[in-house]
Amino acid sequence: MKMIDSLKAWWIRFRCPTEFLCDNCQLEHPSTCTHRARPNATQCPDYTPK
Q1: Is residue 38 included in any domain, yes or no?
Q2: In a domain, 20, yes or no
């Protein structure tokens, strides 16, 4: 894993206090997020904190 990837993963864990990313994501709505893992995603390339 590259240093940038590990830093990004740390930042996501720091910013998202819940177990699932979708609970704290701006795109948490069926019409804006089409990922199959939604609403229980633990990794997502489109994650943006609220």
Answers
A1: yes
A2: yes
Residue 13 has pLDDT above 80, yes or no: no
Tens-place pLDDT, residues 15-48:
766 678 888 888 888 888 888 888 888 888 888 8
To the question of pTM greater than 0.90 for the whole model, the response is no
Quote the domain boundaries for residue 35: 1-44
> Whole-angstrom Cα distance, residue 50 to residue 44?
15
Q: Among 25, 2, 50, 1, which residue's Cα sits nearest to residue 42?
A: 25
* Residue 26 within a domain: yes
